[in-house]
Design goal:
This protein has 19 helices and 13 strands. By secondary structure, it is α+β, with helices and mostly antiparallel strands. The chain has 3 domains: about 70 residues; about 260 residues, no CATH class; about 130 residues, no CATH class.
Length: about 550
């Protein structure tokens, strides 16, 4: 009777422990080889000089000194191992620009809830959570010897996945941590790949510095370029070496870990179709190439770089590629669900269309409000919320009616009084046009400031990338038509366009009071905005933010 060939949990754990020992041995070898070659050359030249004065050669390639070189290599490897793995999680998070989830972001709160659910399903395993502020679609996991365990996800992935798909991705990443595959991957990346990532960031910083001219100094631009060139050459040389060594160590990262994590995610969520759909979406979108993380690709659910090499199954691909072919992974997962890939593709294509909303004009209730024995107004419900003197006991009278009621008796205002103590409402901002107080409003899961009198919107610059990757909001036919006209105009004007626009009366920043810059959002999107160069706050007139979103989705 033939026995089934499979690996038990203990077999896998022994294999991972063995790989870590071998990894350290290879690190020693990487130090030993150049030091031994250098020492052998020195010995050889010393021996040649001696033979000039006396007959006979005493040169020996191996001897007691070889053992000394091995000790030196082991010490150097130990130092390299220690400092490479010391604080490795913090280093990776810093290079990726990872941030803590925003407690005031609805999407981030969903992410937190999903992680809580998968932690419970995995036996109470606790992990740290991070979000990468990029529209790319990817997720990652990290672990180190100090016991830190991290799960991260990009804004693009968080915004485009359904809750079931998000659960599957988080389950996949937590499975890596539970199985200790993540620790092994993080260690491997820390030895050389992390240095490659650091050098790339160093080069980018140099390039930005070199491209900024200093007008006060004659010839500053050529000098900057020359300095950048001189500093970049050794950095690029080191990058080449560390990249080669990092690729060499990739052979210690088994492709099987992804199959195991996929299987574990299916067990935790009981939803193989959602996992397959999530992987397909990631595989057919931008995964982060150019943003960062290409040299530490092994930590991600799919490599940020889309390479044909990774989709092969030959000996070299299996040896050096950290991820198995996407199509093979999808076939294995869908086999568990008895499903077909064409259904996944059809579902994803349907979700890509721009959502159209019917523009409905609703009747607006207007009230007179009593302040210091005088009736003022009329005001809409939103405008009442901007009044500093409005209290639950403030007397209101519906326009064209004689009946008087208290503000707290209006359901919308009653809810407002409950929310008014939230810290977001205490950050007061004045409308740059009306000079009325702005109110806090939910927009695409985030809190923005809105003027209830002119309907303008104030947004923090770092929140816009989150808004642009989200597809919760639909657009009316009027907004879509305006976006199409603006897109056509942009194509005609782009070669002669100046982003900055003149304005006779600049608007004051709602936060610091400085004059804001009136400009187009970018060369590609000719939506007029006002931006504070100090606070990075951006003011949108009515419809402008929706038109900008629509333009980006159309693009």
């Amino acid at each position: 009777m033939a026995t089934r060939n499979f690996k038990t949990f203990w077999d896998i754990e022994k294999e991972k422990t063995w790989r870590i020992y071998v990894l350290f041995a290879v690190l020693i070898l990487l130090y030993f080889c150049p030091v031994f070659v250098l020492w052998s050359l020195i010995k050889f030249f010393i021996d040649i000089r001696r033979t000039l004065y006396r007959a006979g050669s005493s040169f020996k390639l191996f001897g007691f000194d070889t053992f000394v070189v091995l000790i030196i290599a082991a010490v150097a490897a130990g130092i390299h191992w220690y400092y490479s793995n010391k604080g490795v999680v913090s280093k990776v998070l810093r290079f990726l620009g990872a941030k803590y989830p925003d407690k005031r972001d609805k999407y981030h709160n969903v992410f937190q809830n999903v992680v809580d659910e998968i932690e419970t399903a995995a036996g109470g395993f606790k992990v740290e959570r991070y979000v990468l502020p990029t529209g790319a679609m990817n997720a990652f996991a990290l672990a180190d010897f100090s016991g830190r365990r991290v799960v991260g996800i990009t804004e693009g992935l968080l915004s485009r996945l359904s809750r079931g798909e998000l659960q599957s991705v988080i389950a996949h990443e937590i499975s890596h941590i539970v199985s200790n595959d993540c620790l092994h991957t993080t260690i491997t990346c820390s030895l050389f790949s992390l240095y490659s990532e650091a050098l790339v960031h160093f080069n980018k910083t140099l390039s930005r510095h070199g491209s900024q001219p200093i007008p006060a100094v004659a010839g500053a631009v050529p000098q900057n370029v020359a300095t950048v060139g001189l500093l970049s050459f050794p950095a690029l040389l080191l990058l080449f070496v560390t990249d080669i060594l990092g690729q060499l160590l990739n052979m210690f990262i088994s492709r099987e870990k992804e199959y195991r994590a996929d299987a574990s995610a299916v067990r935790l969520t009981r939803n193989p179709v959602s996992l397959a759909s999530a992987l397909y979406k990631i595989g057919t979108h931008w995964r982060g190439a150019g943003y960062g993380g290409e040299h530490i690709a092994a930590i991600f659910i799919l490599s940020p770089l889309s390479r044909k090499f990774d989709e092969q199954e030959d000996f070299l691909a299996t040896l050096f590629s950290t991820h198995p072919p996407l199509l093979k992974r999808l076939q294995v997962i869908l086999h568990l669900a008895h499903a077909d890939l064409t259904e996944i593709i059809r579902h994803v294509k349907e979700a890509k269309t721009i959502k159209t909303e019917v523009e409905v004009i609703k009747p607006v209730l207007r009230f007179h409000a009593q302040n210091k024995e005088k009736w003022q107004g009329p005001y809409t419900i939103l405008q009442l919320q901007s009044l500093e003197w409005l209290e639950p006991g403030t007397r209101l009278r519906l326009i064209d009616h004689d009946e008087v009621l208290r503000a707290e008796e209006v359901p919308a205002l009653s809810y407002f009084f409950q929310q008014r103590n939230d810290p977001a409402w205490k950050m007061r901002r004045l409308c740059p046009d009306c000079r009325k107080w702005l109110i806090v409003q939910n927009y695409e899961g985030l809190y923005l400031w809105c003027c209830p009198f002119c309907n303008g919107l104030l947004a923090e610059g770092d929140k816009l990338p989150r808004i642009f990757v989200r597809r919760e909001k639909g657009f009316s036919e009027r907004v879509q038509r305006l976006a199409e006209v603006m897109s056509d105009e942009a194509k005609k004007k782009r070669p002669h366009l100046s982003v900055l626009l003149s304005m006779s009366n600049p608007r004051p920043c709602p936060k610091c009071g400085q004059d804001m810059v009136h400009k187009f959002y970018s060369y590609a999107y000719h939506v007029e905005i006002d931006e504070c160069q100090s606070c990075r706050l951006i003011w949108f007139d009515p419809d402008e933010l929706e038109i900008l979103q629509c333009l980006i989705e159309m693009g």
